[in-house]
Amino acid sequence: MKPTPIKRILIVLAVLLVLVLAMATLAQAGPITVVDDKGRTVTLAGAPQRIVSLLPSLTETVCALGACDRLVGVDRYSNWPASVKVLQGVGGGLDPNIEAIALLRPDVVLMATSSRAQVRLESLGLKVVALEPKTHADVQRVLGKVGQVLGVQDALQVWRVIDAGVQAAAQSVPAAAHGTRVYFEVSSGPFAAGQASFIGETLTRLGAGNIIPASLGPFPKINPEFVVRADPDLIMVGERSADGMAARPGWAQMRAIREGRLCRFDAAQSDVLIRPGPRMAEAARLMAACLSDKTQQKTVRP
C-alpha cells in the first residue's frame, strides 16, 4: 500500500529532523544555567550525561533532541521511544521513589512543576529542572529549555518540524469537516480537553470546533450533563474511557453516539494524543484522520 500524501510529508520531515539533530547536537563545555518553569535559576557544571526524567513528554523531548543515551531512569509512564522501556523505573512522576533516583546518581532530574518531589531531591544535593508544557507555545519553549540543559544547538529546529507536521495534517482535512463540533475526552471523570489546551489548539488548527470553552481551563473535570446539552457532532476518546460511555445518563441519545461518529483511540494512540511534545504532529494526523473519516460518514448518511 502506498503511503498517503500526509504520511509522505511526515516521513520527509522525520528524515530532515534526524539530519538536523545529527549536525546540531553538541555537548556544551562549561557551566549551563537555565531558568525553569518555577522561575528558579538552576546551574549545572556542564551538559548532563546522566539524566532522570519524571514526565513522559520530557522523556520524549530528550530523545527527540538526540540525547536518549543520556537517560538513566524514567517514570513508570515513559514508554516511547522503545529504548526507554529498558531503563530503570523510578515510580510515578508526581510522587517518585526518591531513593531509587538518588542511587542512579543523575546530573539532573527533569520533572513536572506539579511534582511533589523537588524539595526532597534537592535536599540530597541533586539538580532539578521543573518544566511542564501545556500549550503549543509551551512545547516550543520547553524544547528550547531542554536544549539548553542538554547543550544542543538550535533545539528549536525540532519545533519547526513539529509545526510543519501539524500544518500538513491541517491541510489534509476536507473543507466539509471545518466547523465540526468536537468533544475530546482525555480520561474518565470525565476530564476534557478544553480550547485552552494543546489538544484544543490542535483542533483549532485543524478547523474543528471544541464544545469545551477556554474559560473552563485546559483540562477541566466536567459535568456529564454539560456534554449532553452541547450535543457534539463528533467524540474523540481513548479506549480506556470509551467503555460504558453510552451508558452515562442521556449520552446514548446524543447524535455523535447514536450515529456512530465516535473515534476510539487505542492505548498507544492515546499516549501520542495526550503528550505535549515531539509527537504532536502525529497526534494532529490522528485527529485529522478522525475528522476526515467521520465527516465523510456524516456526508453519506441517508
What is the CATH topology descriptor of the largest domain? Rossmann fold
What is the CATH top level name of the largest domain? Answer: Alpha Beta
The shape is globular
Helix/strand-derived category reads alpha/beta
The succession of helices and strands, N to C, reads HEEEHEEHEHEHHEEHEHEHHEHH
If you average the pLDDT, what whole number results?
91
Output the strand order for the largest sheet. 5-4-3-6-7
Q: Tell me the count of domains.
A: 2
CATH architecture of the largest domain: 3-Layer(aba) Sandwich
Low-confidence stretches: 22-28, 298-302
Tally of separate helices: 12
Helix content: 40-55%
Major sheet attributes = 5 strands, parallel
Count all strands and give the number. Answer: 12
Name some characteristics of this structure:
302 residues, alpha/beta, Rossmann fold, 12 helices, 12 strands, ABC transporter substrate-binding protein
Write structural notes for this entry.
It is a single chain. The protein is of the alpha/beta class and 302 residues long. The protein has two domains: 26-152, Nitrogenase molybdenum iron protein domain (Rossmann fold, 3-Layer(aba) Sandwich); 174-300, Rossmann fold, CATH 3.40.50.1980. Helices cover 41% and strands 15% of the residues. The protein contains twelve helices and twelve strands. It has helices spanning 5-24, 56-64, 98-103, 118-123, 136-150, 156-172, 198-205, 224-230, 239-242, 255-258, 267-274, 280-300, and strands at residues 32-35, 41-44, 51-53, 71-74, 88-89, 108-111, 128-130, 181-187, 191-192, 209-210, 234-238, 262-265. The strands form three sheets. Strands 5-4-3-6-7 form a five-stranded parallel β-sheet. Strands 8, 9, 10, 11 and 12 form a five-stranded mixed β-sheet that branches. Helix 6 packs parallel to helix 12. The radius of gyration is 20 Å and the shape is globular. The model is unreliable at 22-28 and 298-302 (pLDDT under 50).
